[in-house]
Structure formats: C-alpha cells, structure tokens
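Query structure, 360 tokens:
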C-alpha cells in the first residue's frame, strides 16, 4: 500500500481584522492607534490596530485600562454587519481553492489544499495567491501559515505577521517546534505556560524531554496533546462540518483585577467575543456560564439556564453580568474571567481541542 499523502494545510489569519476594516473605510484613522469597542467606563476593546498594540492595548481589555496605556487611543464603535460581509467575501475566495474549509472565526480559517484544485505548483503558491486575492478584493492584508498539520500551520501564520507567510515543511517541523517558547503554542495559555516554566519547561525542546508519565502527573488529560505537539504531531483533519457543543472565551489578565467596574468590563468583553461567534454561526444556547479564577488559583463557575435560547447580544451581556455580580464584591484579585454559551438545540457535537488555558 502507498503511504498516505502528506496533508497541505494553510491557516489564514486576517491582520487586526476589525481595526483594519475601520482604517480602510476611514483613511483619517490610518497610522493611528485605533480600538474597536465602546470607550465607556464599562466598555471593552473588541480589537486593536497594530499601532495601538504597540502600547499594550489588546482585545478583551477594559476600555479604561486601554486608555491609561494609550491616552491618544481612538475608539470606533463596532460594525459587525460590515465585518460579516467582508468575512463572506474572504470565505468565497477560500471556496475557489478547496471545499475543506474550517472557519475558526470571522477572520481566520484552516484550509486543506492537498487536492490542489487550482493546479498551483505548491501550497506556498496557493497561500500567496489567496492573500493576493484578499488584498485585491477587500483592500485588507492577511497572514498565512503553511504546513502538514493544523497545529504547525497556526503557529506558522503568526511567524511573519502582519502581511506575511511562513511554511513549516515535514522535514523541519519536529525540530522547529523545539526552538519555540511554549507560551506561543496554541492551547497553552498564560497560566499553563507559567506552570510549565515552574517545572523547567521553557521551550518545545524542554517539553519534548519530559516523559508522558511526567506530563500526565502534572497536566492530566492534556498530557497526550502536549506530548504530541512537542514533536510536531497533530492528526486532526480540517473539518468543514465540525459542530460545537459550546462557544466560550476566556482571558488571563496581566495583573489581577480588583475593581468592580474592571471586573464587569472584563466579563462583558468575553461575552461580546462569544456573541460574535454565536451570531456568525447562527447558533444560540440556553445556558450561560461565567468562569472565575482568583489570584490564589481557586476557580469557580456560575451558570444559568433559560427556557429559550439567548438570541441577542444584550441578553447575553445581561446574563453574564448577573452571574458575575453574584460573586462580587470580592476581597481576592481575579486573574481570569471566562464566558461560555452552551446547551444548543443540537447537541451532536465533537470537541476539537480541550480548553487548556486562557488566551493572553
């Protein structure tokens, strides 16, 4: 029997998508620090331009914190109808190259181009052509990662951002991973990365040196995943039909939150992030869960199920606020906040990755 064909997978990630759309449509914003979101006291940053990121402004950050970091920050109200329309343009381009498209959000997706519908010489040429088409048709830039599996493709798309691409070939994948800090690995959030660092795991090489038994002892069910990715291994296919049981978002903050307004703004930021997925996927759940991790690493969740699905952003925000207010005020600082919507009408879902840690 012939060996199975090596997959050719591209991860496309738009560059600062929401903010870039606003800068495209309002030339006076170009070159300036821009945040998409509500600048009010309880507002949060939905997206930040690269100029704003230079000041440390990030998505899901409370607006008051963002303004402290960048006093000249310009807030622009989000226009999700415009972002969805642009996303549809981008996905229409993807569909010309492959049927195997797995969207992750409005602005990123995996593409399996092994079949080479366009007859281009390499996956590198395919990614370059897709990025050219996106620029010509939308006026926006995208970055691409090309590799033989999804884990490496996603890592690679960050390697030449913005407006670049990087390939990790089969003969370099396993060794390339060893050179990277574990905090860059998809699925390793700040808390997990810090735990790994305390255990002497700073790089992919350090992670590869740990036995599976050691990883089981310290990371439980995630051990097999860490053991595999430290070797550049990931067998997950690009699945265009993946159905999710839930949609969740969580963030670990650089410093613990103690102010009630900042805590509430943090929860609203996670709720807004979840809502973007729900609205795009047109899937609405009945159960809202808020996750809180305190400074001492004690973790709690609070959930509420309703008789009908949550179908508006305001309803999701209100439910999330009600749940977080049930644990406020608190004497302990809060290091992580998360919001999840679940209990969709259809529950025939498959999980792609365990939730291994919060995003920075």
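Result returned for the query:
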């Amino acid at each position: 029997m012939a060996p199975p064909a090596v997959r050719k997978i591209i991860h496309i990630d738009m560059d600062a998508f929401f903010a870039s759309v606003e800068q495209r449509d309002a030339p006076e914003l170009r070159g300036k620090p821009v945040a998409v979101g509500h600048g009010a006291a309880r507002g949060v940053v939905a997206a930040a331009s690269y100029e704003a990121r230079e000041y440390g402004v990030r998505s899901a950050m409370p607006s008051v914190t963002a303004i402290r970091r960048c006093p000249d920050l310009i807030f622009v109200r989000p226009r999700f109808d415009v972002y969805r329309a642009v996303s549809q343009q981008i996905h229409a381009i993807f569909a010309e190259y492959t049927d195997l498209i797995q969207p992750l959000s409005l602005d990123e997706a995996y593409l399996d181009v092994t079949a080479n519908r366009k007859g281009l010489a390499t996956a590198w040429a395919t990614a370059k052509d897709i990025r050219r088409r996106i620029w010509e048709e939308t006026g926006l830039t995208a970055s691409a990662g090309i590799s033989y599996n999804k884990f490496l493709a996603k890592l690679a798309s960050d390697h030449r951002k913005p407006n670049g691409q990087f390939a990790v070939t089969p003969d370099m994948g396993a060794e390339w991973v060893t050179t990277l800090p574990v905090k860059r690995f998809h699925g390793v959030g700040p808390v997990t990365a810090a735990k790994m660092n305390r255990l002497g795991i700073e790089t992919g090489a350090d992670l590869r040196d740990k036995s599976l038994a050691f990883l089981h002892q310290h990371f439980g069910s995630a051990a097999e995943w860490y053991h595999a990715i430290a070797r550049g291994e990931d067998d997950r296919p690009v699945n265009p039909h993946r159905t999710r049981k839930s949609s969740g978002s969580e963030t670990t903050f650089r410093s613990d939150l103690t102010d009630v307004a900042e805590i509430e703004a943090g929860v609203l930021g996670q709720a807004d992030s979840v809502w973007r997925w729900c609205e795009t996927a047109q899937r609405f759940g009945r159960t809202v869960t808020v996750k809180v991790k305190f400074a001492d690493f004690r973790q709690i969740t609070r959930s509420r199920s309703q008789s009908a699905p949550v179908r508006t952003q305001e309803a999701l925000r209100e439910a999330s606020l009600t749940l977080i207010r049930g644990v406020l005020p608190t004497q302990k600082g809060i290091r992580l906040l998360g919001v999840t919507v679940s209990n969709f009408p259809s529950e025939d879902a498959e999980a792609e990755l365990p939730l291994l840690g919060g995003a920075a």
